[in-house]
């Protein structure tokens, strides 16, 4: 779960099916090629993006948003792989949303390395990581 005020609840979103478009507050998800991505995870990512924007980190928020939308829109990635990529990105987003002293930098860098390795096998996602990965990794600086 992303770093947020203790009384803030995550919104519950409907399941994405077919070619429907689900708009969270910050992330636009187009269905069609996936059905097993946890919408709770997408809600948590959306909350992280909003929190980062509110904390004056719009570039980091945009990088996470772009990668999330790229993963969910990709037609080349298997559903199970999409779910894993969203889960990894969610864990990374949660950590970069925390105050610098509370971040688990080493373990999150390992997650980012795993994410980079997995997306490198898909041309559309590899180009997104090449563009936005450095910004995300920069958000982990202690």
Give structural notes.
This protein has 142 residues and is mostly helical. The protein has one domain. 57% of the residues lie in helices and 4% in strands. A two-stranded antiparallel sheet has the order 1-2. Helix 1 packs antiparallel against helix 2, helix 2 runs antiparallel to helix 3 and helix 4 runs antiparallel to helix 5.
Write down the Rg: 14 Å
Distance from N terminus to C terminus (CA atoms, Å) equals 20 Å
Helix content: 55-70%
Oligomer: single chain
Biggest sheet architecture: 2 strands, antiparallel
Shape: globular
Strand order of the biggest β-sheet: 1-2
Q: Mean of residue pLDDT?
A: 80
Secondary-structure element series: EEHHHHH
Domain module tally: 1
The secondary structure category is mainly alpha
E-strand count: 2
Task: Write the topology of this structure.
Layout: E1 21-23, E2 28-30, H1 39-54, H2 58-73, H3 79-96, H4 105-119, H5 123-138
Antiparallel strand pairs: 1-2
Looking at this protein, list some descriptive labels:
142 residues; mainly alpha; 2 strands; 4% strand
């Amino acid at each position: 779960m992303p770093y947020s005020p203790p009384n803030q609840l995550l919104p519950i979103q409907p399941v994405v099916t077919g070619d429907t478009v689900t708009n969270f507050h910050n992330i636009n998800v187009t269905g069609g090629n996936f059905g097993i991505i946890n919408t709770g995870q997408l809600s948590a990512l959306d909350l992280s993006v909003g929190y980062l924007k509110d904390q004056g980190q719009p570039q980091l928020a945009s990088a996470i948003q772009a990668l999330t939308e790229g993963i969910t829109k990709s037609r080349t990635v298997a559903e199970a792989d999409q779910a894993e990529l969203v889960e990894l990105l969610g864990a990374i987003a949660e950590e970069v949303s925390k105050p610098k002293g509370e971040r688990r930098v080493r373990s999150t860098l390992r997650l980012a390395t795993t994410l980079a390795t997995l997306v490198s096998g898909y041309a559309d996602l590899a180009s997104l990581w090449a563009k936005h990965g450095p910004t995300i990794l920069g958000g982990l600086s202690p």
